[in-house]
Amino acid sequence: MTSGGNGVIGLVVNPVAGLGGSVGLKGSDGADVQRAALAKGAEPKAGRRAAQAVATLLARRPGVRLVTVAGAMGEDSARAAAVPYELVPSGVQDATTAADTRAAVAALADVDLLLFAGGDGTARDVLDAARELGGQAPPVLGIPAGVKVYSGCFALSPATAGFVAADFLTRPETAEAEVVDLDEERYRRGLVSPRLYGSLRVPAGRAALSGRKAGSSDAAPATVEGIAREVAARLRPGARYVLGPGATTAAVGRELGLATTLLGVDVVEARAGGGAGLVAADVTEGELFELVRGREAVIVLSVIGGQGFVLGRGNQQVSPRVLDEVLGGGQGGGPGGGDGLVVLATQQKLAGLGGRPLLADSGDQELDRKLAAHVRVITGYRESTIYRICAASEEFYG
């Protein structure tokens, strides 16, 4: 493909990526899971996030050629972004399977940079296609749209993907980024075992990429238990506490003697005489909204090691409307006031960020900007600090 000096960007969208997140299915791989997600009321969001990326790209580089494939795997997002685009035939089927993703990547092999919207499973499909293309494979950049986004080939946010793509056309330097994924069946059983599948060529601006997730295994159990004790000591009687996914929040459940989940979102309510009771475990976004609606509530989330994400990665149940209900437009808490958002992280995890801020990518850029200030982080028993949190879309290109 010739670009006339403006560059050619390809776009592939996995329209079912992230479908299972808001309804607590912890992934979207497989037709059965996708049907279950839709039956629970899940709404596809990958296309919208892809549209944000290409709108940002074309606003920064109006002369770029955007090339994509028909329907939900690209064309619909370009239309939603109201940007000019061209179509190439790919033989894509309506089912949008992994084979369709590989076919779309092959059809766009001649572009200067390929944007793909999805999660780690989509990144694996792109990697498989790149291996089939060999030396003809273009560099790629992921638009984060999945439930799991642990691989290092994704931009921090859809808008950041657009900015990085625009800058890449001026400075086409590349680096290698790892592709990792989890076995979703094991993941749903609480077994987190990421596997390295290979690497992809990506734009070299690593600061704007999410980086590979770092595990929490280095954290001393005593440190995590200390965080859990501090959370338990801070409970306000009558308030409901939303415990996000993760080993640290699961330790809070153990401290309270409750059967909470490792990878789900749970709601507990503090008792007047001490302790707490389990209100609901492994809730969907809709269930969570109803459980916090009109009540004093606090959202308790942990940090993804290495990446710094607090919102938008694996906890899609904590949606913009849930956040707005609990935080009341800020971080001062909902109807009952107080700290409406509390973050848990060991000192080692914060140190691993190297001074970089915590990140929010809730899917609502305006809400993320409202959250951008400072948040309380509990780091141990009787230990806490105030740490900066930023909208992922603005941290490097604000």
The portion of residues assigned to helices is: 25-40%
Strand and helix order: EHHEHEHEHEHEHEHEHEEHEEHEHEHEE
Cα end-to-end separation: 32 Å
Sequence stretches where pLDDT stays below 50 over 5 or more residues:
20-28, 329-338
Strand order of the largest sheet: 10-9-8-11-13-15-16-14-12
What can you tell me about this protein's structure?
With 398 residues, the protein is an alpha/beta fold. β2, α3 and β3 (86-87) form a beta-alpha-beta unit. The radius of gyration is 21 Å and the shape is elongated. The chain contains 13 helices and 16 strands. The chain has helices spanning 31-39, 46-60, 75-80, 98-107, 120-133, 158-168, 184-188, 221-233, 247-255, 285-292, 320-327, 347-351, 365-371, and strands spanning 8-13, 65-68, 86-87, 113-118, 140-144, 174-181, 195-203, 240-243, 266-270, 276-280, 297-302, 309-311, 341-344, 358-360, 373-380, 383-391. Strands 10-9-8-11-13-15-16-14-12 form a 9-stranded mixed sheet, sandwiched between helices. Residues 20-28 and 329-338 have low confidence and may be disordered.
Note the topology.
Blueprint: E1 8-13, H1 31-39, H2 46-60, E2 65-68, H3 75-80, E3 86-87, H4 98-107, E4 113-118, H5 120-133, E5 140-144, H6 158-168, E6 174-181, H7 184-188, E7 195-203, H8 221-233, E8 240-243, H9 247-255, E9 266-270, E10 276-280, H10 285-292, E11 297-302, E12 309-311, H11 320-327, E13 341-344, H12 347-351, E14 358-360, H13 365-371, E15 373-380, E16 383-391
Parallel strand pairs: 1-2, 1-4, 2-3, 4-5, 8-11, 11-13, 12-14, 13-15, 14-16
Antiparallel strand pairs: 6-7, 8-9, 9-10, 15-16
